[in-house]
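Table S2 (text version). Query chain:
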Amino acid sequence: MSTIREKVEKALEEMKPNLQADGGNIELVDVQDAVAKVRLTGACVGCPMSQMTLQWGVERFLKKKVPEIQKVEAVR
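Corresponding structure-token output:
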């Protein structure tokens, strides 16, 4: 049986090609209390749309793929 962290990592791997196509990337930093902490890298750093990408893209996708996740936070 997979841990929540493993499920999140697998889901992020599915999402990475979309971010990489625009010159960005994402990595999982930690999962604590149903919160996935991620780091946006590459072109995502400093992009004015990165917060939208995080909330409307990453968070929605992860919640769908990993129902245990309630929130996604960006960390540096």
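Notes on Table S2: The chain has two helices and three strands. The domain at 4-74 is CATH 3.30.300.130 (GMP Synthetase; Chain A, domain 3).
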